[in-house]
Fold:
Amino acid sequence: MFNRSVQDSRSPARDRTDERESTTAVRLEGVTHRYGSSGGRFRSGDERTVTALRDVSFDVPTGTIVGLEGPSGSGKSTILHAVAGLLVPTEGSVELRDTDLAALSDGERTRMRRHHIGIVFQRFHLLPSLSARANVALPLVQAGVPRSDRRERATDLLEAVGLGDRTTHLPGELSGGERQRVAIARALSTDPDVIVADEPTGELDTATGGDVLELLTDIGRDRAVLVASHDAATLSVADRVITLRDGRVDDVR
Amino acid sequence: MSDETDELPEGVETRRRTRWSGLVGVTLARWRQRATGTTVGRIASTVGAVALTIAFLLVVTGIALALADGGATSRDDADVRITPTEGSTLSSVDGVEGPRLGATNERAGAIRSHDGVEHASPVLVETARLESTDGDPRTVRLVGVVPDGESRTVAGLPTDRLEPGDSHYANGSYDGPRNGEIVLSRTAADRLGASDGDELAVSRGPMQSNETAVTVTVAAVGDAGGEGGEGGAPIALVHASELQSISGAADGQLADRVLVWGNSDTAQSAATDAYPDASVEIAGRTDPTALFEDGLAFATSVIALIVGVTICASFVATTMGMTVDEDRRTLAVLESIGVPTRGRLAVVAISTGITTFVGSLVGIALGAGGIMGVNAIASATIAPGAVAQFHPLFVPYAIAVALLSGLVAVPYPLAVAARTSVLSEVGR
Structure:
């Protein structure tokens, strides 16, 4: 399906394959999170809180795809956001390559996310006024990569996901599956150690979703991939599936 | 953990520059795409609002500039004007009406001797009281000139109605025969109840009406074709040396300015030779510093500036705030891919800056068109000539005002951007 493996599209300057082997990329230890509990100074003390996660612990080794399943509100997205450093859990620790994200400042977490995390959203979230190539190159802008290198890297990644002929297209000119592949290419642009994907096939038909899953499987060979989904086909590519219920780990298989 | 400085310690500064130039480039590309496709309406309305306020500012400032530069006594058809530079000790004598040029009759003569210069004349403006035999004394602005018999206009009145030359000057002795002629503007003639051939008594100033010593004969009254008659100002032309004698300006051969007719470049060169420290201005180019010297014009332009900045900033703040509000998802995506708060706010600030800059460019074009339109309407209806002027300095002025407005406005879109929650925007 794709022109070449995304594994071949790795940035030569940042090839960390050896380093990644047999290491734990992500570790959650006793993670509990309550929404509404970290409010500002003007919030009343008796404000109602919602507990999204209760004492969740697991780890994701490099080279492993871990699936998260469970009904809506079970805490799947909260785990992904905690791993991505977009939220700090109320209790417990989330370690990314042995660094506790909760101990970092907002700026340090943002930097950590930039270098080590790639996020794939259900609704793609591409910038509509930028071309596919510019969208893929976007994370490299903040990384300080020169323009010519950004373009080269983005073009390589788009070719790797089978969109070499769509580099100058705007997201509005692409199909759903193509947009998600652009989003995956964007997530890979900084050559991250961990990919988190929230319902990556949720907006796609079965055939297109299959292509995206093939891509994710390819990515998962040398990265830690965390996929949240309701979809059995998506979860089938996972090496391990964690079932969540009411914010707790209900089952691991 | 990995840190930027850990990865490329020798290139931190280079990377910072690359990062910022990249952010500016992405913002520019995004703005261009949005302005021409994805959100053309919003961008166009912001640019339009900025352009209209800038155009309004330029038209009002153009009118103020014309007001400061003009006045009925300044209306002439000379090619070059020499005026005293404020504070110049070499070319001016400070008097109650500001600095004046010295040795004007003599140096005007020197300027006239240059090839390519048709004529040069000192121009002295004094307030005096004129009284006809059967009327009340009236205050009139007397404008002293040296006529040469050619058809020229000074203070909106024709100089060729005066006897050519300036016989009373007599090479600086001021003892030559007086011509005793005066050309009245229509308004002056009406107020005095005077007509051609009437004799008028001249006193030096409004407070000294009893010291009448000189009489002049009305040589002409500015007719309907004369600009001075239509301006409504009581003005009259007399010979320069005679006015200098009456006003006491003869000692230093003082005048408010020297007018030169002829080829602009030659006349400018001759004028600069004669008055190296004075301001030499080619006709059609107004000195914008005149705005600061005229109270009404200055107040008008300052009010236009304040109103312009206020309206412009309000429009920019509102429309950019709404744009950012619609754009929260983009900001959330930027955060999710690791762009820090400073970078995200920079994207918003740069977008606002681009919008106001483009608005200012459109506004300059509209303002220039507006000034031409105002002049066309004024010429066709009430005014004899231009009532608004465009100056090249308006271009940087308009851009600076627009960017200032953007600067005043930018905290609001920044505040909207800073309140964006990545989880609520990218979550389901």
